[in-house]
Specification:
Layout lengths: L1 E4 L3 E4 L2 E6 L2 E5 L1 H7 L6 E4 L20
Antiparallel strand pairs: 1-5, 2-3, 3-4
Length: 65
C-alpha cells in the first residue's frame, strides 16, 4: 500500500477521479462518500497489477530523449 494525501477530486464521467501526488484513482461517488474522501485527507492506495497503466513522462522542449 502507498500512503498519500488526497488532492483534487473531480467528476470524470460516471466516476470521481481522485488525484494524489503522481497517482490517480477512479472511484464511484458512493465510495467517495462512504470513505469521507476530500482534499487533504491521508489515504492508502492499494494497487492491483491488472489495473496499472504506465504513461511516459512529458519531456521538456529541446531536451534529449
Amino acid at each position: 500500500m502507498i500512503e498519500v494525501v488526497a488532492g483534487v477530486l473531480e467528476p470524470y464521467g460516471p466516476v470521481v477521479r481522485l488525484r494524489a501526488g503522481a497517482f490517480a484513482a477512479d472511484l464511484t461517488p458512493a465510495a467517495v462518500a462512504e470513505l469521507g474522501l476530500e482534499p487533504g485527507v491521508v489515504v492508502r492506495l492499494a494497487v492491483k497489477a491488472t489495473t496499472v497503466a504506465v504513461h511516459p513522462a512529458p519531456t521538456a522542449v529541446g531536451s534529449a530523449p
